Amino acid sequence: MTERIHLDHTFTIDIARWRNQGAKCIFPLCPQTAKLKTIFISMPNQSTTGILLLNLGGPEKPADVEPFLYNLFSDRRIIRLGPFFLQKFIARRIAHRRAPTSRANYKKIGGGSPILTITRQQAEALEKVLSNTGSYIVRPCMRYWHPFAKEVIFEMLAAGITRLVALPLYPHYSLATTGSSLADLSRILQKLNCSLPLSVIRSWPTQPEYIRCLVERVKKGLAQFNGKPVELVYSAHSLPKKFIDEGDPYVDEIQQCIAAVEQQTGIRGRLCYQSRSGPVEWLQPSTPDMLRNLADNGCRNILMVPVSFVSDHVETLYEIDILYRQMAGDLGMRLESTPGLNTEPLFIEGLKKLVLQGVAA
Hints:
With 361 residues, this protein is α/β, with parallel strands linked by helices. It folds into 3 domains: 3-54 and 114-203, Rossmann fold (3-Layer(aba) Sandwich), CATH 3.40.50; 62-107, no CATH class; 208-337, Rossmann fold. Helices cover 44% and strands 16% of the residues. The strands form 3 sheets. A 4-stranded parallel beta sheet has the order 5-4-6-7, with helices on both faces.
């Protein structure tokens, strides 16, 4: 037996009442259009956990680049652009100015970011390996581009979930990544008056399967050099230094991760930071500075490990594999990089264990 309920333009849903009545949606909602919607509900047969894979997101085509950048620079958790009331105005101007260069960079890797495609593949793989442990729905949940938290939560509610698990695909916690994604998710859940249980996996810098994946990639990467001397360089996404000064654990967790890898490989590496922009003080050394320093000291071979990224996107496919490789070549060095973890079965197994730990907590 089904019955109809209506949602008005505020999208306010009493999820607790739904859950108490044992109801779930059959047809997904359409949060993009703030119009009256009719949905159908029915009685669920079992409890279902919704897994949100939190990630940054990225433009899928050239037309997406400028609005994506606008969303990014509008987030005061990452960067404060003047007084609060001017944030979006300044963000729009910055996005417009930077869009042509960003579009050119994305063009070199196919015209857009593959991050949503890869995250969907990761979600499908994770849902598959979880299927023998219970009822799970796994979906990407992006911060600065579609699918946004609101869109994913509506889909989850439509599927009749009974609890949520937020799993960030940022292994190392930072206010600018995990913190921002979780704050946005909390805002949406509050707006929807959603009282479903929520488990949050804050970070996982030394998760065993994740570390083993990095170890295997380091070993395979070094084998490409046929025994020649190689400098191992870990490159992480940079942050304004003030984040760390104010207590952000990002650098500490990256160092924990690298220490866990080195314990298994017995090989010491160097840490540097890429993708900085803007006139503030960023973490040091930058990846370009690291390359120049290594060249000055006679280095001829580099294996670069993108330690803070678990899927390939513009920072790996363009910055490392094109920009930094060319820079290294101009400095007389050979640079190779390890591929993203993407849908590596061992990595997906690690995500499964994180989910099960989160559900049990």
